[in-house]
Predict the structure.
Amino acid sequence: MFVVPYSRSGTVAAAMVCGTTNTGWGTVDSAAVTAQSTRGATESVTVTARSTTVTAESTTVTAASAPVTAAAAGTWKLGDLEVNRVGFGTLRLTGNGMSGNSDGAPIDREVAVGILRSAVERGVNHIDTASFYFSPLRSANELINRALAPYTDDLVIATKVGPWRDPSGAWLGMAGPGQLRGQVEENLRQLGRDHLDVVNLRVNGIVSVAEHFGALAGLQEAGLVRHLGLSCVTPEQLAEAQAIAPVVCVQNPYGLEQRLADTNGLVDSCRRQEIAFVPFFAISGRRREAPADDTHGDGLRAVARAHGATPAQVRLAWTLHRGPNVLAIPGTSDPGHLAQNIAAGALRLSRDDLDRLEAPRA
């Protein structure tokens, strides 16, 4: 078990809803509370060509021992860019403006800037954003720019293109292939960068991704984009894109209660191809996050109690357990929830825990 401050739950993963409906581990090992540079001191480290996963089970610690960093869950590579598996999604920092996903008025600008800086100080080096993450008072990209520029070499910023919003926030549907360059350039301008690390094509209402993904591949060849990914896709769309250019990540809704990516084979397909699978809404798997202790019954609460964790942390830990290529990008506007989310990367679930969590609900 482990102990972390702030017992409240309710933190969510950052993303807008898709446009189309689409080893048991013990508790916490010594590597869960060390900085990234000390992973070599862990009792047992398994390394594949693209991942670093800590598997030791025997040591139990408390948060007072040392601050848990995002390195606790291990790493994965987005192309040639290594990231810690616990990242940060920025949607929640913008406040009202994202239909169905907002929390009312945004938090104070300096608090938002502080949360981003604190995330990076705690080892987060994978930030998820989009130029369409904005409200009348806040823009996620511009908050990132203010908080983190000039950017460190190890910071990976992943953004999305595809959907359009006008300045009022109204949705305008899916951009055409020829309009994607403008969206990429807008992300570059807002972030203050000359290239984007990862650009995900958010697929809203289109069947074939060939033209859109081909347009992004052209921008990659032009040097505006380093790596390409997809969001809200089917296994068939992933295969179609892979035939055009390498896909380094797939973002889809996924969690204990939203497991379409399991039933349609997408999670397995990503694992086989060593593509990062990056769930959003990992805490509830729903369009808008529900309180994490109200939606999955006694089993979830029992596992959380056994580990001295919150239900939200258990959900994130379950997500990370799905494979070494599975990343998490929980977002929050609460500094306490940020600490909890990062600490979830140190939570090791046993086989009994997993059976309890995955048991059919009564």
Q: What stands out?
A: The two ends are 27 Å apart (CA to CA). The chain has one domain: 12-358.
